[in-house]
Amino acid sequence: MDVMNSPDLEAEGGTGKPALSASDSHAAADTAVCGLAGQETAAGHARDFSVSVLARWGLAQLCEDVRLVVSELVTNAWRHASDKGHADEQIELRLFRGRSAVVCQVSDSSSREPALARVDETAESGRGLHLVERFSQEWGWEHRDGRGKVVWAAFSIPRTT
User: Fold this and answer.
1) Do the Cβ atoms of 141 and 113 come closer than 8 Å?
2) Is the C or the N end of the chain the one with fewer CB within 10 Å?
């Protein structure tokens, strides 16, 4: 299933970003937002929040994949905020539920573009975006007009029979 061409998620202008951007939250059937302090506990809070929201939406079958991806995205946001010396910065997690997909967005003030690193078998880090790519339907990012960036990942909602 092509998430970006589904009825409730359309790619905008070839950017590869879902139509459910932070400014388009009204397009989603359901929206949940969680502000996270830029600290080591942020990823744990984000995982708990995501699982709770998905359970409330009746989408427990997505919990494992979304939990992993949200953890990676929030960890990256925290690391890059910390690199800038803004360890207390706010990171925001948004979950959108459309008819056929759930989109997770993590925003931070860093303008550093996310990039897939070449995997070094001996390195302790550098695999996060590879996991995001593997466990989400698709993912991408966009700048936020001089206010950092939003990194998103989309997950298809399984059809029920």
Assistant:
1) yes
2) C
User: What's the confidence (pLDDT) of residue 68?
Assistant: 95
Distance (Å, whole) CA 131 – CA 135 = 6
The per-residue pLDDT for 120 is 63
The pTM of the full predicted model, rounded to 2 decimals, is: 0.77
Other CB atoms closer than 10 Å to residue 68's CB: what's the count?
A: 18
Q: How many CA atoms lie within 13 A of 94 on its CB side?
A: 19
Residues in the chain, total: 161
SS3 80: helix
What is the C-alpha to C-alpha distance for residues 97 and 154, in angstroms, rounded to an integer? Answer: 10
Hey, which residues does 155 pair with through a beta bridge?
102
Q: How far apart are CA 153 and CA 72, in angstroms?
A: 11
Q: What is the pLDDT of residue 19?
A: 40
Residue ranges, the chain, pLDDT below 70: 1-29, 81-88, 117, 119-127, 161
How many CA within 13 A on the CB side of residue 73?
34
93 token code pair: 């997690």
- Put residue 133 in one of left, alpha, beta given phi > 0 → left and psi -120 to 50 → alpha: alpha
